[in-house]
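> forwarded from #structure-qc
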């Protein structure tokens, strides 16, 4: 809970296209009840998301301090690691370890993890879209719950927004890079520890873009997460699963207006 008095949103710099903005421009109507999910497919992804993540953590605690002076709480924010752990995020108050969620290279598994944790704001790495299948009920639940989706802007792109971390946030980013050094490797660790205060760019993604993005991480297993023992005991047939299929067509994940 060390971030509760260190992160102050006015100390972050938010910029849009030719205008000054704030966290509310990226995450409209953000409150302490929101649940933020950072998806990391490779080491360093979470560090690119860090300025936005840490500003949201600051906003979480600012709302609490406005109404309380005695609490011991962490925000319900999560990092979803695809395939394997991509870093250690306790320096960002991602706490406890159960909020470091490792999922398989399976689109439905990741969507289920996002839904199970009630995520309302989602930050994705940059990627082109893909084709695949998801479960219809999971798609409809996410469509009702996830209110904001953004992605890291490619280095050569013109992002919709940039966020520059505060001095305190930059120190946390450096600390996170250092503790994650065994995973990041020497080159990435050096880059993030030498320049942790760099602005990061983000652009919005619409919901169809999210579904297409999910299908870039792998192929949904035909079992849809059901074990053979469960299917046999509960009589979950192929016909039953077929009724819960949502087909996803490729989308290049262009930012929406």
């Amino acid at each position: 809970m060390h971030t509760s008095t260190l992160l102050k949103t006015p100390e972050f710099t938010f910029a849009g296209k030719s205008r000054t903005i704030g966290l509310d421009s990226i995450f409209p109507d953000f409150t302490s009840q929101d649940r933020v999910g950072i998806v990391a497919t490779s080491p360093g992804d979470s560090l690119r998301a860090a300025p936005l993540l840490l500003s949201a953590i600051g906003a979480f605690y600012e709302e609490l301090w406005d109404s309380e002076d005695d609490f011991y709480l962490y925000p319900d924010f999560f990092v979803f690691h695809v395939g394997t752990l991509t870093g250690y995020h306790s320096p960002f108050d991602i706490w406890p370890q159960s909020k470091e969620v490792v999922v398989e290279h399976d689109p439905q598994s990741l969507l289920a993890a996002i839904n199970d944790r009630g995520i309302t704001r989602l930050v994705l790495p940059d990627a082109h879209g893909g084709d695949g299948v998801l479960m219809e009920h999971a798609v409809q639940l996410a469509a009702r719950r996830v209110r904001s989706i953004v992605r890291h802007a490619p280095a050569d792109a013109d992002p919709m927004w940039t966020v520059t971390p505060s001095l305190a946030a930059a120190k946390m980013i450096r600390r996170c890079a250092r503790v994650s050094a065994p995973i990041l490797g020497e080159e990435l660790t050096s880059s993030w520890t030498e320049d942790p205060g760099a602005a990061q760019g983000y652009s919005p993604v619409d919901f169809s873009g999210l579904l297409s993005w999910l299908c870039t991480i792998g192929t949904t297993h035909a079992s849809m997460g059901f074990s053979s023992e469960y299917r046999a005991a509960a009589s979950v047939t192929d016909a039953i699963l077929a009724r819960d299929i949502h087909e996803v067509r490729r989308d290049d994940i262009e930012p929406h207006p």
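QC bot note: Residues 98 and 108 are 20 Å apart (CA to CA). Residues 45-67 form the longest helix (23 residues).
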